[in-house]
Design a protein that fits this description.
With about 260 residues, the protein is of the alpha/beta class. It is built from ten helices and twelve strands. Helix 4 packs across helix 5, helix 4 runs parallel beside helix 6 and helix 6 runs parallel beside helix 7. The radius of gyration is 19 Å and the shape is globular. It starts with a helix and ends with a helix. The structure holds adenosine-5'-diphosphate and magnesium ion. The site of magnesium ion has 2 residues, from helix 2. One of its GO terms (cellular component) is plasma membrane.
């Protein structure tokens, strides 16, 4: 790896623009996330939070600007449009840096918890079954599911399924983990067990975490930095005690006030 790649931030958006039709979702968006930082993104529905994460997963492209992950540019410019880089090897390499967990758990219903976690490393990292399953078992123990290895998704609670989903993303050994409202679909009593797993991952300082949430308790528990996003712009950012308890921007204040009333 070159010196620039190791010195580069985990995530960099530079003047990134993204539209869907006439809707400008990201507007000359800038954000640098140093390696190991835990960044929480808050903001109203439709402000572009999921789009940000989907761009980092190379599920969406941008029209202009630049996006980098661990020093690799996510997009190549040709025909005046930014597209995912050509060449499957490079795309796979970039995707290998990033893991993502969604609000809906998206586990494979016909596979056990163990198979759900082991299948990625077997296919993408060419691990043997024995090796992949041993690692999957260790990961499932780590998220507190050592007794559920053979259980199928339908036999697990929402909190347990989400912990399997986190283990599955971690099995590919990402440097950057993206979490999109992963506790939003859970019954309140199940949020804590998922948050505990995320806190444990956060204490492992090498992992860069980018967490989108509507739950300020989740934000406080995890964030080194909170970013408030509105209409595809970063309106305010800072440590959680500043942004959540003493916001400077009137839009941030309004948003937090409305959340408190909800
Ligand atoms: N695939 C898509 N096609 C068209 N519009 C989209 C698509 N994905 C998102 N949008 C629009 O982009 C805006 C931002 O969406 P999103 O990133 O999902 O916001 P958030 O996650 O903050 O709620 C919204 O106006 C949404 O309707
Ligand atoms: Mg969203």
């Amino acid at each position: 790896m070159s010196a620039t790649a190791t010195d580069a931030p985990a995530v960099r958006f530079a003047a990134a623009c993204k539209s869907f039709g006439d809707t400008r979702v990201l507007d000359r968006f800038d954000l640098d996330i140093p390696r190991g930082e835990k960044t929480v993104i808050i903001g109203p529905s439709g402000s572009g939070k999921s789009t940000l994460l989907r761009i980092l997963m190379t599920l969406e492209g941008i029209e202009s600007g630049r996006v980098e992950i661990c020093g690799e540019t996510l997009t190549d410019r040709f025909d005046g449009v930014e597209r995912a880089p050509r060449g499957r090897g490079r795309l796979r390499k970039i995707r290998g840096h990033v893991g993502m967990v969604f609000q809906q758990f998206n586990l494979f219903p016909h596979m056990s918890a163990l198979e759900n976690v082991a299948c990625g490393p077997r296919l993408s990292l060419r691990r043997s079954r024995v090796e992949a399953e041993a690692e999957a078992e260790a990961l499932l123990r780590r998220v507190g599911l050592g007794d559920k290895l053979g259980s199928y998704p339908l036999q697990l609670s929402g909190g347990q399924q989400q912990r399997v989903a986190i283990a599955r993303a971690m099995a590919l050994r990402p440097e950057v983990m993206l979490f999109d409202e992963v506790t939003s679909a859970l019954d309140p009593e199940l949020i804590g067990e998922v948050l505990a797993v995320m806190r444990e991952l956060a204490s492992e300082t090498s992992l860069t975490m980018l967490v989108v949430t509507h739950q300020m308790g989740v934000a406080r528990a995890l964030a080194d930095r909170v970013c408030f996003l509105e209409n595809g712009r970063l309106v305010e950012q800072g440590p959680p005690e500043q942004v959540l308890d003493a916001p400077e921007n009137p839009r941030t204040r309004e948003f937090l006030h409305a959340l408190n009333l909800a």
